[in-house]
Specification:
It is found in: Cell membrane. By secondary structure, this protein is α+β, with helices and mostly antiparallel strands. The protein contains 8 helices and 8 strands, in the order ααααββααββββααββ.
Length: about 230
């Protein structure tokens, strides 16, 4: 396969094949990284993603750069990454060295300025995170730490924590996650079978209770008590 090697020029088909191989290889690499949202990337994840992106981009833009070398280099980096990840799971000291430890920035309603300097976060960012977490006042916080993932974790003082049914010793129903059976006017038959209902039942319910047709429904869910909740196109 000549398109793997450095060439003076490549045909259109060879460029397409090179792109397809690189794309499938990156998909496989992403699977090896594991499931992690962009906001959850650690520093090592972010740096490695930038390096791999640059390595793979070169042979896709320059026909004189070998694709073979890029694939081998990327695979080696991924293996190093997997080894590092395994090390962080096995040795706590190594994990702290690679990923870092949470840094307290608020304790007992007081802002720890030295912690903010260590985490290198400005006051505006701290306040933004508190607003995102719907914390009204710094004084309500028992402990807030800046995590290695770049997010703020907040624990309220006991007197400011929301009252729960458990605290009031109330009897509650078991958790039941509603299933989506209609999405954008289309019936999701697999979900319907999972709840033991038929298409005819759904259409009859829509006509009798909601006076609407299937194609007019943006979203419909059903809970464990067979209660439908319908949202329309607006």
């Amino acid at each position: 396969m000549d398109f793997f090697q450095a060439q003076h020029s490549l045909t259109t088909i060879e460029w397409i094949l090179r792109s397809a191989v690189a794309y499938l290889f990156l998909v496989a690499v992403a699977r090896m990284f594991g499931q992690r949202a962009i906001s959850q990337l650690r520093l090592i994840d972010f740096v490695l993603a930038l390096i791999i992106g640059n390595i793979i981009a070169n042979p896709l833009a320059d026909h004189e750069v070998s694709l073979n070398g890029s694939l081998i280099t990327t695979l080696a980096l991924v293996l190093f990454y997997i080894g590092t990840t395994y090390g962080t799971l096995k040795w706590n000291t190594f994990n702290k060295l690679v990923t870092g430890s949470p840094i307290p920035v608020i304790r007992n309603g007081e802002i720890i300025y030295n912690g903010m300097k260590k985490a290198r976060i400005p006051m505006d960012l701290l306040l933004e995170e508190l607003r995102r977490l719907q914390v009204k006042s710094v004084e309500n916080i028992g402990l807030a730490t800046w995590e290695a993932s770049g997010q703020l974790s907040v624990f309220l003082k006991p007197e400011f924590e929301p009252v729960t049914a458990g605290a009031l010793q109330l009897t509650v129903q078991p958790f039941d996650l509603p299933r989506t059976i209609i999405k954008e006017g289309k019936l999701l038959k697999e979900e319907l079978l999972a709840v033991g209902k038929r298409e005819g039942w759904v259409k009859a319910e829509l006509n009798a209770r909601f006076h609407t047709e299937l194609e007019d429904v943006l979203l419909a869910t059903i809970d464990g008590k067979d209660q439908l909740q319908v949202f329309y196109y607006r």
